[in-house]
Automatic annotation (TrEMBL):
<dbReference type="InterPro" id="IPR035669">
    <property type="entry name" value="SGNH_plant_lipase-like"/>
</dbReference>
<comment type="similarity">
    <text>Belongs to the 'GDSL' lipolytic enzyme family.</text>
</comment>
<feature type="signal peptide">
    <location>
        <begin position="1"/>
        <end position="28"/>
    </location>
</feature>
<keyword id="KW-0732">Signal</keyword>
<keyword id="KW-0378">Hydrolase</keyword>
<dbReference type="InterPro" id="IPR036514">
    <property type="entry name" value="SGNH_hydro_sf"/>
</dbReference>
<dbReference type="Pfam" id="PF00657">
    <property type="entry name" value="Lipase_GDSL"/>
</dbReference>
<keyword id="KW-0325">Glycoprotein</keyword>
<dbReference type="InterPro" id="IPR001087">
    <property type="entry name" value="GDSL"/>
</dbReference>
<dbReference type="GO" id="GO:0016788">
    <property type="term" value="F:hydrolase activity, acting on ester bonds"/>
</dbReference>
<protein>
    <recommendedName>
        <fullName>GDSL esterase/lipase</fullName>
    </recommendedName>
</protein>
């Protein structure tokens, strides 16, 4: 027996070395995931915002969810509608996958009454059509609020407080959870401007809302800090002036209304003002809370780079400002038809498009946006640099 063992040992060594080599090669070619057992700040992810990261809250409260509940939404990855406003995954899906989490449920999808197990990896509180300001403010300004979600950012923070109380029974436990979790506050604020504009309100009506939106976001960030949050990421809003639905809505303008990329100058200027004020407010919060990492995420320049240099990322230059799935007309963004209405045919390859339905983006874009946050350079420090070195 001893002789037999001696003869087979070299073969075992060869196999072991080969397996080790393959493992190293595979890990080098795939994005690194977080070792949760060694990471103190990335054990959970809690996210707040609107349809850019809503993974199912809207369709669980709405009695008439409309187009998002029907094909072709979800066709690229899930093969069916899931409540995500895209052809596939959203930004937050790519983030949780990279962190090594399963696709955790949206808050309203959790069992009732919810248990600790439902929120083992965190929770997503984002709601499509959500705003930073509450619905009552828009009602007071005589807007039709039928399409404005009642679940504004403040309500979402309230949901989080309920979850925190459910998963931690003592102050020490709650502080530990807050310190070991990532918080994604946004994107939020775009709908505070979308709703008035699409109800024919002027720039003069909308611009004064910007400081109020920034104040609301800051109050929510402060609420999380007060509860013990240590790592918070806050995205700005993307260039609204390049959104096909806006380009269709304001079609026929003067040549001077458009920049070299074909986007609306005045609307991108409003977006830039929002982001500038948000960055300034986050810097103030950072100075006031030196033990907290508050990171601005630059969605504006990330998305603008896809529009101005589409071929670099595999998008079609001729349709970079067109919806993949729309109602026809200029920019394929006719507002009278929605993506899942009869007669509307989606493009053959959503991965070649920036815009999915004229207002939301494709999975291909969301993957790039998530990567800019996970690995940089559109978030400094990036999520992965923080998680891997916590």
């Amino acid at each position: 027996m001893a002789g037999a063992v001696t003869k087979t040992t070299p073969l075992r060594l060869v196999v072991a070395v080969l397996l080790a080599f393959l493992a190293v090669t595979a890990s080098a070619s795939a994005p690194a995931k977080v070792n949760m057992s060694s990471s103190s700040s990335c054990r959970r992810l809690f996210s707040f915002g609107d349809s850019l990261i809503d993974t199912g809250n809207f369709i669980h409260y709405s009695k008439a969810p409309g187009s998002v509940s029907r094909s072709p939404y979800g066709e690229t990855f899930f093969g069916r509608p899931t409540g995500r406003w895209s052809d596939g995954r959203l930004i937050v899906d790519f983030i949780v996958d990279r962190l090594g989490f399963p696709y955790w449920p949206a808050y309203l999808q959790a069992k009732s009454p919810a248990t600790k197990g439902d929120f083992r990896y965190g929770a997503n509180f984002a709601v499509a059509s959500g705003t930073a300001l509450n619905q009552l403010l828009f009602r007071k300004k005589h807007l039709n609020v039928d399409q404005i979600s009642p679940y504004s950012l403040g309500i979402q923070i309230g949901w989080f407080k309920k979850v925190l109380a459910a998963i931690a029974s003592t102050d020490v436990q709650r502080r530990e959870i807050m310190a070991s979790s990532l918080f994604l506050v946004g994107e939020i604020g775009a709908n505070d401007y979308n709703h008035p504009f699409f109800q024919n309100r002027t720039l003069g009506f909308v611009r004064p809302l910007v400081p109020r939106v920034i104040r609301s976001i800051a109050l929510s960030v402060e609420a999380l800090i007060k509860l013990g949050a240590k790592n918070i990421y806050v995205p700005g809003i993307f260039p609204l002036g390049c959104v096909p639905r806006y380009l269709y809505f304001y079609r026929g303008g003067e040549p001077g209304d458009y920049d070299s990329a074909g986007c609306l100058r005045w609307l991108n200027s409003l977006t830039a003002d929002h982001n500038r004020m948000l960055k300034g407010k986050l810097r103030e919060l950072g100075r006031a809370h030196p033990g907290v990492s508050i990171t601005y995420v630059d969605y504006y320049n990330e998305v603008l780079s896809l529009i101005t240099r589409p071929a670099v990322n595999g998008f079609a230059a001729g349709t970079v400002l067109h919806a993949c799935c729309g109602g026809g007309g200029p920019y394929n963004a006719n507002l009278t038809l929605h993506c899942s209405d009869p007669g509307v045919v989606p493009c053959p390859d959503p991965a070649k498009y920036v815009s999915w339905d004229g207002l939301h983006m494709t999975e291909a874009v969301y993957k790039i946006m998530a990567r800019g946050m996970l690995d940089g350079p559109f978030a400094t420090p990036s999520i992965m640099s923080k998680c891997n070195h916590s």
